[in-house]
Amino acid sequence: MRYPSAAMSTSTEAPAAFRHSASRPGPLQSLRDAVEDIASRQRLVRYLVAADIRRKGADTLLGNLWWILDPLLQMGVYVVFVSLILRVDTPDYPLFILAAILPWKWFTSTVNDSASSVVNQDRLIKQVQFPKLVLPLAATMAAVVGFVIGLIPLTGIMLIYNDRLTPFLLLIPVIAAVQFVFTLGVSFLVSAVNVFFRDLGNVLRHVLRLWFYLSPALYSLSRLDESHAFQTNALLRFAAHANPFAILFESYRAVIYGAVDGPPHAPDWLALLVLLGASLVLLAISTIVFKRLEPLYATVL
């Protein structure tokens, strides 16, 4: 990912006296530095977000329209596979699966873009001193636009199944906020690690694919709970419920789809609160890791 005028923008945003220290800052100091870096580079973050959005729109023939068509095409594939081939009877299945496809597409596109956000700016990093944390942050924020645009086809599908249109849809931003915190933590971590292990990008694609199929995306968590394996293995059941995307998928479905035999309803607030707390811990740890490794990026790249 290259930005032709990024050097000029980062130069104007570079601090007058860039911090150099022979001693490593402590965890709390690293977190304070990260907050200060982001707060003082808001203009740079906005520039990078806008550049990333423009790049994604220009890279394909259909441009920004692809953000609408792609989830619909994925939905069609899974509807054919599950409903026609496997013959799993789930009412209003297109809406059921789309409620999982949209947040998952947001997550995977963010993680993949963030993994390469630092290494793709190797030339800029060697030339200009600026907080590298803004790179994965900008990639994460840019992907939010794709998720918002993805709500357009969701709205169209919901007009077909208008009996599921309820005020609970207004809770989507709340669930999305929890996902954003979790995604940002993952993004900071993979962007830092990928500087030193360039094969991480290839591994991520396989890990994410496996993660999707192990999550209740094509099926509901309640269907898993009814299986003999889950009823007889408490550890397996706990692992499935502890999956962050089990919580997120079930939360999105609660407000968008509801239940197979019931209308939309409020999500499990306790599960979302626990996930938010765990995501904040992950975000803090990944930020500290990123800041500790940041002085080495220029030499490694």
Low-confidence region ranges: 1-22
Number of helices, where a helix is a run of at least 4 consecutive DSSP H or I residues = 15
Largest sheet: none
> What's the helical proportion of residues?
over 70%
Assign the structural class, choosing from mainly alpha, mainly beta, alpha/beta, alpha+beta, or little secondary structure.
mainly alpha
Number of strands: 0
The shape is globular
Give a quick rundown of the structure:
This protein is mainly alpha-helical. 72% of the residues lie in helices and 0% in strands.
Structure description:
This protein is mainly alpha-helical. The protein has one domain. The protein has helices spanning 6-13, 27-40, 42-58, 66-85, 93-115, 122-127, 134-160, 172-196, 200-214, 221-225, 228-232, 234-242, 244-256, 269-293, 297-300. Helix 2 crosses helix 14, helix 3 (42-58) crosses helix 7 and helix 5 (93-115) runs antiparallel to helix 9 (200-214). The radius of gyration is 21 Å and the shape is globular. Residues 1-22 have low confidence and may be disordered.
Fold blueprint:
Elements lengths: L5 H8 L13 H14 L1 H17 L7 H20 L7 H23 L6 H6 L6 H27 L11 H25 L3 H15 L6 H5 L2 H5 L1 H9 L1 H13 L12 H25 L3 H4 L1
Helix pairs in contact: 1-3, 2-14, 3-7, 4-5, 4-7, 5-7, 5-8, 5-9, 5-13, 7-8, 8-13, 8-14
